Amino acid sequence: MRLASLTATTVTISTAISGHRKMFNTDQEVHDDKLIYIPFSDGYDNGFKSDTDDPKLYMSTFKQNCHKTLTTIVHSLAQLGRPVTCIVYAFLMSWAADVAREHNIPSVFFWNQPATVFSIYYHYFHGYKSLIMAHANDPEFTIHLPELPPLKIRELPTFLTVTDPGHLHFPILTSLCEGFEALDIEARASTLPKVLFNSFNALETFALASVNQMRTLTVGPLMPFLFAGAVEGVSTDLFKNDETDYMKWIDTKREGSVVYVSFGSLAVMKKVQMKEMIKGLKESGRPFLWVVRKDNREEGVLLEGGEEGIVVQWCSQLKVLSHRAVGCFVTHCGWNSTLESLVCGKPMVGVPQWSDQGTNAKLLEDVWGSGVTGKVDEEGLLKGEELKRCLELVMGEGEESMRIRRAAKLWKDKALDAVKEKGSSDVNLKAFLMSIN
């Protein structure tokens, strides 16, 4: 959307049919001013069903199916007089770079996780794999990667500690390897910037220095409400907002008093963890808004907030985080959620689950200083008293609490500076557009 607002060139967004349906409720091509949405088939047009579909089979056929359908789209656009001049592809989609290379089309990798995580993967595949694999079962072992802060094994992306080829996540690590191999090929063959990050220079200067072998540009935070002239009318929510009028409820609360809790669109919380969350939230004595999807509501767990709490199935996260009454975000530390909280100036309590989330939690606490990470027990459970402790640390009146809130405000200002006219991300994105036009 940001690209479309900055260039006269038509931007075509192509996503799997199942994802396209969630945005538009149709399988057909959709035109929206300078944006065109064209779905492609990944072989699972009704979406991947985690309870019935075989993830290994999906990963093994995904590349073949998508390569074929994207090739068809490229040919069709050329026949319509709309030739593709650049392909920007995302995480786990290196097959798109293969299609681009086969058609002599420049390609660029868009990385929608922190540049730090990209740097970790880069060094894993360029000299550090053996060291990390050797200590994969020692969560406290510390790794020192070029220019990055020291990282314990438990703070690395979880895919890197998968050693069993039969593990559910092993195919993801294989796809990541293919992605970095594609980048190496492209980096040797072109002067075009090869990686775009949904981050900004001030946030991850050290990570950018860590991969100075690659051609990189930070162009974030990429959030439609930050940009004047951004294309409107397309929802980015994966689920419908809850009918509960939660915003009216938040309006009645004093500034900085509400705890907002959400663990994203994928995480599934066990019954025992839900009970501990309820305990911690209620014992904190602070009003809370908690998002619990309908498919994650365990029988036997009473999800009622009482007078000081409200539980909804889904909500407009940016709208909530932007509200004056919200004083803390309890989050799984997915990158989108982390970045949204930074942009809105809200301190966080991190409860990472998997993938890049442990790294993101490390950054928010030890590097950016805008939050804390909840400590789990031997079973991986965040106890209610630990949640209460973290909330007090972030929202209390002590010196450390004030420092965390000042840091959150600082990063909000820096994020807004990055995307404004002549800010670092604004300059980088315009430079990228000039390089492909």
Automatic annotation (TrEMBL):
Chain ranges passing through the membrane: none
Pfam families in the record: UDPGT
UniProt-listed InterPro entries: UDP_glucos_trans, UDP_glycos_trans_CS
GO MF assignments: quercetin 3-O-glucosyltransferase activity; quercetin 7-O-glucosyltransferase activity
EC id: 2.4.1.-
Alphabetized UniProt keyword annotations: Glycosyltransferase, Transferase
Enzyme class: transferase
Alphabetical list of Gene3D superfamilies matching this protein: Glycogen Phosphorylase B
Signal peptide per UniProt: none
Superkingdom as given in the UniProt entry: Eukaryota
Keyword Glycosyltransferase: yes
Family, per entry: Belongs to the UDP-glycosyltransferase family.
Protein name: Glycosyltransferase
The organism of origin for this protein: Dioscorea cayennensis subsp. rotundata (White Guinea yam)
Gene symbol of the encoding locus: LOC120250169
